[in-house]
């Protein structure tokens, strides 16, 4: 086959990949070619615009290293991450809604005990987080693994300032107790702009968008026989709740971080300054392979 | 706006970018979001497949440096480069058809005189290239700039073996003479696989495709008042003419590289070995801004 023109090249490419051995690879490749060509046909890029596109993708790749994932930021800001999340996580009644993982998750967070303060060297408004993990129909789950991570009072994560603070902070892994409960102390997180000094920031500015996310605490919760829950709890009243740059906010995930006076805290400790209290109850969805056990 | 689901997230993203200041950026961004989301909705990627996609793009970016452009290879092998070429270069009667630039073009090729041998240290079957450059209606163009580049007998370009050969070769810039003609000596190029030790090679293998291009000589021809012509001339009879991995072959660009016995060559020189002769006449399309002069 030769002599490809605007009208016959898409079929030519589809024909060329028709021999893919794996049916899923064939399906994904064909869909990619059809939508990509339809996009190009619709916008009719000049040669210069095509060069800009190649350069944009190249710079996005060059921005990625072990501390920065610019392609995830691109997926997040174009709404693709939330779309993939929605496709994969229909949520039954009683189960907590999901949202994006975000770029600041770290695989091996420090193991902590319930009641520990995870703020490390960071200064800020004290916050106690109490919570429970249960099945969607309300049965407590003991021994569930609860990963938490959040930003500091200025909106920065530990991994963005490791040079200054020296170690991970505001990040830990807990296990629920016999009643399915966990609790810890830290500092209240703030709203923050996603890293916007790269190609994604350039795109947001060109699209007339701000780079901010409303304040939140990340949770990743795992228990044998249940789907892993990846979500946040957002601070009620934040001014970016309706314009989160990555489209991650759901009403059920917004919660009061209650401002409490000094005195006896929910964990029985006496504290000398005012603090914030977040209490949130999480419900896990049974894994498909665990259907028999339901 | 909050609570984005599979059904409402696309509109949410479109609403968010509706304020883009530049109408072209708005148009391209909107089309990108619609086609990208439609692709994701069609294939319904698992979280793992989404992660593979992020990793594939990241590795493609990391493969790019000043000697390798993996995103151009991706565009070429998905037929996007030829589609963009077709959109931008409708060809009037008498003008030469266009094809992809390819990843081996170098901005500052050495200036050579008509009749020079540009093969440098490379060994191979001698080849003389003679040609003309004229308007689409056949008027010779003197002083046109003719960039040429091609592979060696093993299918490698100079830039792929600079460490061994030390300098550019099989690559030069000529100017047409008073009759619009140019000619030079080199060695006959061979078919070659595009670089396939990266993500694009991984994709081709998964899609059941070979990475080969039929043998060709690249030409980029410029003359004031005319559209720059980017094209190849392909060697007639090559076994990859119907399966060029980048979809670049057009019948009008296939030409005999005539095998000639030793003796008097077309440039009057006497040669002692057999050689190949390519003669090709190029027609340039008048630039839109030059319409008055037509
Ligand atoms: Cu589409
Ligand atoms: Fe975050
Ligand atoms: Fe080539």
Automatic annotation (TrEMBL), chains A, B:
Where does the sequence pass through the membrane?
none
The record's section on CDD domains has:
1_2-HQD
Q: Which cofactors must be present for this protein to function?
A: Fe(3+)
Where does the Intradiol ring-cleavage dioxygenases domain lie?
A: 129-157
Q: Which GO terms describe its molecular function?
A: dioxygenase activity
Q: Which PROSITE patterns match?
A: INTRADIOL_DIOXYGENAS
Q: Does the keyword Ribonucleoprotein apply?
A: no
Is this entry keyworded Thylakoid?
A: no
One Pfam family recorded for the sequence? Dioxygenase_C
Recorded hits in InterPro entries, A to Z, give: 1_2-HQD/HQD, Catechol_dOase_N, Intradiol_dOase_C, Intradiol_dOase_core, Intradiol_RC_Dioxygenase
- Keywords, ordered alphabetically: Dioxygenase, Iron, Metal-binding, Oxidoreductase
Family per UniProt?
Belongs to the intradiol ring-cleavage dioxygenase family.
What's the protein name? Intradiol ring-cleavage dioxygenase
Organism of this sequence = Bradyrhizobium campsiandrae
């Amino acid at each position: 086959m030769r002599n490809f023109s605007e009208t016959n090249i898409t079929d030519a490419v589809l024909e060329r990949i028709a021999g893919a051995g794996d049916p899923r690879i064939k399906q994904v490749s064909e869909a990619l070619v059809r939508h990509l060509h339809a996009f190009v046909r619709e916008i009719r890029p000049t040669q210069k615009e095509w060069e800009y596109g190649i350069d944009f993708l190249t710079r996005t790749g060059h921005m990625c290293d072990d501390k920065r994932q610019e392609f995830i930021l691109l997926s997040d800001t174009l709404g693709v991450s939330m779309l993939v999340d929605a496709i994969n996580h229909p949520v039954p009644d009683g189960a907590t809604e999901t949202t994006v993982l975000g770029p600041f998750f770290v695989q091996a967070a420090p193991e902590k005990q319930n009641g520990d303060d995870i703020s490390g060297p960071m200064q800020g408004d004290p916050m106690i987080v109490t919570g429970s993990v249960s099945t969607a129909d309300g049965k407590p789950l003991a021994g569930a693994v609860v990963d938490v991570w959040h930003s500091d009072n200025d909106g920065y994560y530990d991994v963005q300032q490791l040079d200054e603070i020296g170690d991970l902070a505001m990040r830990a892994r807990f296990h629920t107790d016999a009643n399915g409960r966990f609790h810890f102390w830290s500092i209240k997180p703030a709203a923050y702009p996603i890293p916007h000094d790269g190609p994604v920031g350039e795109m947001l500015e060109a699209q007339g968008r701000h780079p901010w996310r409303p304040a939140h605490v990340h949770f990743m919760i795992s228990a044998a026989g249940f789907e892993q829950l990846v979500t946040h709890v957002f601070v009620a009243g934040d001014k970016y709740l309706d314009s989160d740059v990555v489209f991650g906010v759901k009403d059920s995930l917004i919660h009061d971080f209650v401002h409490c006076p000094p005195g006896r805290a929910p964990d029985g400790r006496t504290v000398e300054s005012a603090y914030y209290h977040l209490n949130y109850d999480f419900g896990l969805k049974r894994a498909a392979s665990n259907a028999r056990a339901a």
